[in-house]
Amino acid sequence: MALDKEGNIYVAVFDQKCIKVISPEGRIIQEIELPGNRPTNCAFVPCKYRLVVTEAERGEVLQLETDFLGAKLFENSSSWE
């Protein structure tokens, strides 16, 4: 899973060929379709509007453009902007 600056959670859904984006209110607001059926994880690239996804069925690491930056994960980390 990954968290963006808007508070949305990006969840790799194994056997469903997608990343689901869930709002802070708990609603699925987007499904990002992937070329393989088995995404295993995702993370934001620091300072970029890009999500990296690992995919087990095809043995790939994918980079997807997004509309949001990833959230800072620790208070003492530097800003990504």
In short:
The protein has 81 residues and is mainly β. It has strands at residues 2-3, 9-13, 18-22, 28-33, 39-44, 50-55, 60-65.
Description of the structure:
By secondary structure, this protein is mainly β. The chain has one domain (2-65). It contains no helices and seven strands. A four-stranded antiparallel β-sheet has the order 1-2-3-4, with no helix packed on it. A three-stranded antiparallel β-sheet has the order 5-6-7, with no helix packed on it. A hairpin with a 4-residue loop joins strand 6 and strand 7 (60-65). The chain is globular. It starts with a strand and ends in a 16-residue tail after the last strand.
Topology:
Blueprint: E1 2-3, E2 9-13, E3 18-22, E4 28-33, E5 39-44, E6 50-55, E7 60-65
Antiparallel strand pairs: 1-2, 2-3, 3-4, 5-6, 6-7
The number of helical runs is 0
Q: What is the 3D shape?
A: globular
Q: How many runs of DSSP E, i.e. beta strands? A: 7
The fraction of residues assigned to DSSP E strands is 35-45%
Using only CA atoms, what is the Rg? 13 Å
Stretches with pLDDT under 50, minimum 5 residues: none
The helix/strand series, from N terminus to C terminus, equals EEEEEEE
- Mean pLDDT score: 91
Number of domains: 1
Portion of residues in helices? under 10%
Profile the largest sheet. 4 strands, antiparallel
Tags for this model:
mainly beta
